[in-house]
Design a protein that fits this description.
Cathepsin D, subunit A, domain 1, seven-stranded mixed beta sheet, 1 helix, mainly beta, 3% helix, globular
Length: 143
């Protein structure tokens, strides 16, 4: 599966007005059917991080029922309070079950797909000059 990078406006702190990011669309099963959720594929993130405002749609009544996962490195200069919950998501028809860290303190407008919970399932190839990302499910590689 290949995905093109997404061009987003910067916050004015970078030398250019736009930045190209490896964002992909994943499908989440919610109480109201399937919902799309854009996520950054981030090899530097230990876990997958999603916004807390989607937990109720996922059928999670209280975010704090999950295991507390304090995290640094996402919010500059501060620890991020996140709670782990196991959910199922789909990418290109491939269904995966993973522990996702949900937080109300995530400061970016998209989720983050990290090593635990995403890179466990896919061989990921970044082609920055072409602004593409390629995902190969490990299941396919093992056939």
């Amino acid at each position: 599966m290949k995905f093109s990078y997404t061009k987003l406006p910067t916050d004015g702190k970078l030398p250019s007005e736009f930045v190209d990011l490896p964002l992909i669309d994943i499908a989440l099963d919610t109480q109201n059917g399937v919902a799309s959720y854009y996520c950054l594929v981030d090899s530097g993130a230990d876990y997958c991080y999603f916004h807390a405002d989607i937990v109720s749609a996922m059928g999670i009544k209280d975010i704090k029922t999950g295991k507390l996962k304090p995290t640094t490195g996402i919010v500059k200069g501060a620890a991020l309070e996140a709670y782990l919950h196991t959910i199922t998501y789909k990418v290109g028809g491939w269904e995966n079950k993973a522990e996702i860290a949900f937080s109300s303190e995530l400061s970016v407008p998209y989720g983050i797909l990290g090593r635990n919970g995403f890179f466990d399932y896919f061989k990921v190839e970044f082609n920055h000059p072409k602004k593409e990302i390629k995902l190969i499910p490990f299941e396919e590689l093992l056939k």
